[in-house]
């Protein structure tokens, strides 16, 4: 189709030079695609470089400790991606003897790999004609063809996948998929795209109807819940503190954090003191309590807003579970905790 030819021509003239575009090795393509899920290229690039340096092969990644993988992932968020990445690497090495699945259908069997990632790997590495559909693709197609079906509805998912599959260049599926993703990322941007230099502006329905900012359509998600976190930064006279591993399932599973007291609202020092007094780590022991951040830190996640305060608890000694403050940087922590550790300057 003319659409695919124009798109691929644009891509050949405008694509960014990125390290994963210099290879068709499935390990590197897979790694880049997982890192770039819900992450912009400029943020994900340093992580890609770090991962390929520390884990140059799927065998290296598979034999790594999960804690090392999570530590390297620290700051990217959506930590389930890192856990799934590690689990998939172990599966590839143990069950597939290090051989990557070479088809869309088999790639879907990898933990953490869905339609988009499987399509990207299958087309780029194995030239399979299967179209990618991500946020960038939704935006390009909805604007050009004037499609107002919500992209986060089951109908929208099927409709846009079918449209992308119809448009894909059968002879150059890898170029087409990379081109449409790149076009959405750098040209048909979410806000204020430069439509005057767009090669599709004559036929773009959104541009010609002046509805660029109205597409794509997305059903509003449920309002984020507010949670109130009080992290207890215990510090003993002999330079010890406490980090606890989050064992329960959730976004921070297997990451470390300071002991936490969750409340129903923001609390003051007089309300928190009695709760700390009964804490297992220092029960029956004298302590001094001070608030580190007077301004509440609001850490926004997709489904909840964490209203966070860090409380410094000075004690003579800690009963157990303590670590040296000199070792605190060795633990994989959520970015919220990591930022505090850097600011506190242990």
Automatic annotation (TrEMBL):
Keywords: 4Fe-4S, DNA damage, DNA repair, Glycosidase, Hydrolase, Iron, Iron-sulfur, Metal-binding. Its cofactor is [4Fe-4S] cluster. SUPFAM superfamilies: DNA-glycosylase, Nudix. It comes from Flavivirga spongiicola. The keyword Hydrolase applies. Belongs to the Nth/MutY family. NCBIfam families: mutY. The gene is mutY. It catalyses: Hydrolyzes free adenine bases from 7,8-dihydro-8-oxoguanine:adenine mismatched double-stranded DNA, leaving an apurinic site. The keyword DNA repair applies. It holds the Pfam family HHH. Adenine glycosylase active on G-A mispairs. MutY also corrects error-prone DNA synthesis past GO lesions which are due to the oxidatively damaged form of guanine: 7,8-dihydro-8-oxoguanine (8-oxo-dGTP). Its EC number is 3.2.2.31. InterPro entries: A/G_AdeGlyc_MutY (IPR005760), DNA_glycosylase (IPR011257), HhH-GPD_domain (IPR003265), HhH_base_excis_C (IPR023170), HhH_motif (IPR000445), MIG/MutY (IPR044298), MutY_C (IPR029119), NUDIX_hydrolase-like_dom_sf (IPR015797). It is an enzyme of class 3 (hydrolase). Residues 35-186 form the HhH-GPD domain. Binds 1 [4Fe-4S] cluster. This is Adenine DNA glycosylase.
């Amino acid at each position: 189709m003319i659409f695919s030819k124009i798109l691929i021509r644009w891509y050949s003239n405008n694509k960014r030079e990125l390290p994963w575009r210099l290879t068709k090795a499935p390990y590197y393509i897979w790694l880049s695609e997982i890192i770039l899920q819900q992450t912009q290229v400029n943020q994900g690039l340093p992580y890609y470089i770090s991962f390929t340096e520390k884990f140059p092969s799927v065998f290296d990644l598979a034999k790594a400790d999960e804690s090392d993988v999570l530590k390297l992932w620290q700051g990217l968020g959506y930590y389930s991606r890192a856990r799934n990445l590690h689990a998939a690497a172990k599966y590839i090495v143990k069950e597939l003897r290090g051989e990557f699945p070479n088809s869309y259908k088999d790639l879907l069997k990898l933990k953490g790999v869905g339609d988009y990632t499987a399509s990207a790997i299958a087309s780029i590495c194995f030239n399979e004609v299967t179209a990618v559909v991500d946020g960038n693709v939704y935006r390009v197609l909805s604007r050009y063809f004037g499609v107002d079906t919500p992209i986060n509805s089951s109908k929208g998912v099927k409709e846009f996948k079918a449209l992308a599959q119809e448009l894909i260049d059968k002879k150059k599926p890898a170029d087409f998929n990379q081109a449409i993703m790149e076009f959405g990322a750098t040209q048909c941007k979410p806000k204020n795209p430069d439509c005057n230099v767009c090669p599709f502006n004559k036929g773009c329905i959104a541009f010609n109807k002046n509805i660029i900012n109205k597409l794509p359509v997305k059903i509003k998600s449920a309002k984020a819940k507010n949670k109130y976190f009080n992290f207890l930064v215990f510090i003993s006279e002999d330079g010890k503190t406490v980090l606890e591993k989050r064992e329960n399932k959730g976004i921070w599973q297997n990451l470390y954090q300071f002991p936490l007291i969750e409340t129903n609202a923001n609390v003051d020092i007089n309300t928190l003191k009695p709760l700390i007094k009964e804490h297992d780590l220092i029960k029956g022991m004298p302590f001094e309590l001070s608030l580190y951040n007077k301004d509440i830190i609001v850490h926004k996640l997709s489904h909840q807003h964490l209203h966070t305060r860090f409380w410094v608890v000075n004690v003579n000694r800690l009963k157990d579970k303590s670590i040296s403050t000199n070792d605190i940087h060795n633990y994989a922590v959520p970015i919220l905790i990591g930022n505090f550790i850097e600011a506190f300057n242990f």
